[in-house]
From TrEMBL, chain A:
Pfam families assigned: ApbE (PF02424)
Molecular functions per Gene Ontology: metal ion binding; transferase activity
Protein's recorded name: FAD:protein FMN transferase
InterPro entries linked: ApbE, ApbE-like_sf
Family annotation (Gene3D superfamilies): ApbE-like domains
Organism: Actinoallomurus iriomotensis
Enzyme Commission no: 2.7.1.180
Lineage: superkingdom: Bacteria
Keywords per UniProt: FAD, Flavoprotein, Magnesium, Metal-binding, Transferase
Matches recorded under SUPFAM superfamilies: ApbE-like
From TrEMBL, chain B:
Record GO terms (molecular function): FMN binding
Pfam families: FMN_bind
Top-level lineage group: Bacteria
Descriptive protein name: FMN-binding protein
InterPro entries: FMN-bd
Keywords recorded for this protein, A-Z: Signal
SMART domains, A to Z: FMN_bind
Species: Actinoallomurus iriomotensis
């Protein structure tokens, strides 16, 4: 592949990056990228807890009742996020709890929204004809269609050394989500302790959908020392594989991670 | 596409991590950590035997070595290193850098370098072509100096 087409946009307090093989039609690429960015901006309008009049802020502040969502123009999408947050809370045994973030505990679905929104944005790229692409949503990645005659190569950041990667995942279609403390400190909330989770440096999860990969990575960060066992069980049930970096220079990955990371094949 | 430098600190570190588990069976931890090339045999820890910690949670029939295997300390240009490998049913599933002697403030680089040199032909070519980066969410400001930013600028 010679070169790539790329586009970036600042959304959700981070930067979204889209890339496609260099032989992609430039007009098609530009239109698809703009549709995906619009999709992400819209999700930010609805779900940002930092915008005081967003539906999520209204729910948090008691001004919008969940029971009344059926009449809301964004009701269906909000319900999707609520269902996702419920599922992640159940899956993680309460370690991920969108209804108990912060002190005092408040509703904040941020840990689930970005991956879900990026999954939708990637689908929008495909719908606009950009079948082969990478979408980097501030560190969470969705790829589709491969890079011509090879899979996409997704670097997993080294949490201790900015600008370096620990290893490289190869996949034509799928998601790589990473949650960690390297960029914004300890920000994943552990409702069980009422404090930010700080047991791990970084968790990456690889699987088909970024919606779930991102949710699982966030839940694993909140689980801290129990994350590896939880991810191992999760991998057996769902096929989503995990890689954990803890504070003691220990790196562990679920047994079938080598499917995605050739360097780990033994 | 740009070449992204990947951490390759020392050949010796790489060698000690080039582990081979294929021919080993459960209950044979002694030979599960095999050095290659000119690296001294690194089959046992300081106590003379590899530590072996079977996991009671596993109910599936093991198909290979299982447990944590500790290598001998080895001297590298960056100090003395010792690593342990975690193996589940014959598959390598973890690496821990147990100790290293700090030389010139470089120890922090060595432990972070442990993962990429695992069995990786591509990495040993001193670089890796990557398309996109997965990492902790950066802020708009943090993006400016990020690897992803460099990749985005490399587009045509």
């Amino acid at each position: 592949m010679t070169g790539r087409r790329t586009a970036t946009a600042p959304i959700m307090g981070t930067v979204m990056s889209i890339a496609a093989p260099g032989d992609t039609d430039p007009d098609l690429f530009a239109a698809a990228a703009e549709a995906a960015f619009a999709c992400l901006r819209h999700a930010d309008e609805v779900f940002s807890p930092f915008k005081t009049d967003s539906p999520v802020s209204l729910i948090r502040d008691g001004a919008l009742r969940v029971a009344g969502l059926g009449d809301h123009p964004e009701g269906a999408r909000i319900q999707e996020i609520l269902d996702l947050c419920h599922a992640l809370k159940t899956e993680s045994g309460g370690a991920f709890d969108a209804w108990a973030v912060g002190d005092p505990p408040a509703f904040d679905p941020c840990g689930a929204v970005k991956g879900w929104a990026a999954e939708r944005a990637s689908a929008a790229l495909t719908a606009h004809g950009l079948t082969g692409h990478t979408l980097g949503a501030g560190g969470d990645v969705r790829v589709r269609g491969g890079a011509g005659d090879r899979p996409w190569r997704v670097g997993i950041a080294d949490p201790r050394r900015p600008g370096r990667v620990l290893t490289v995942a190869e996949l034509a279609d799928g998601a790589v989500a990473t949650s960690g403390t390297a960029e914004r400190g300890a920000h994943v909330w552990d409702p069980r302790t009422g404090r930010p989770a700080s047991g791990l440096l970084q968790v990456s999860v690889i699987g088909p959908s970024l919606t779930w990969a991102d949710g699982y990575a966030t839940a694993a960060m909140a689980l801290g020392p129990q994350a590896y066992d939880w991810l191992t069980d999760l991998a057996e049930r769902t096929g989503y594989e995990g890689l954990v970096v803890d504070r003691e220079s220990r790196m562990r990955w679920t047994p079938r991670m080598a499917r995605f990371i050739p360097a780990l094949a033994s | 596409m740009i070449k992204v430098a990947v951490s390759l600190v020392s050949t010796a570190v790489g060698l000690v991590l080039l582990l081979s588990f294929k021919s080993h069976t459960a209950g044979a931890p002694k030979s599960a950590l095999a050095g290659t090339g000119s690296t001294p045999a690194s089959t046992a820890g300081p106590g003379g035997a590899a530590t072996h910690s079977p996991s009671p949670r596993r109910t599936k029939r093991p198909r290979g070595a299982h447990g944590t295997f500790t290598g001998d300390p080895i001297d590298t240009p960056y100090g003395t290193m010792q690593v342990a490998a975690v193996v589940s049913n014959g598959r390598l599933t973890g690496v821990t850098v147990l100790r290293h002697t700090d030389v010139g403030g470089r120890s922090a680089q060595i432990d972070a370098a442990a993962l990429p040199v695992l069995k990786s032909e591509a990495m040993s070519a001193h670089g890796a072509d990557i398309d996109v980066v997965s990492g902790a969410t950066y802020t708009s400001r943090g993006y400016a100096g990020s690897l992803q930013s460099a990749l985005d600028k490399a587009g045509i």
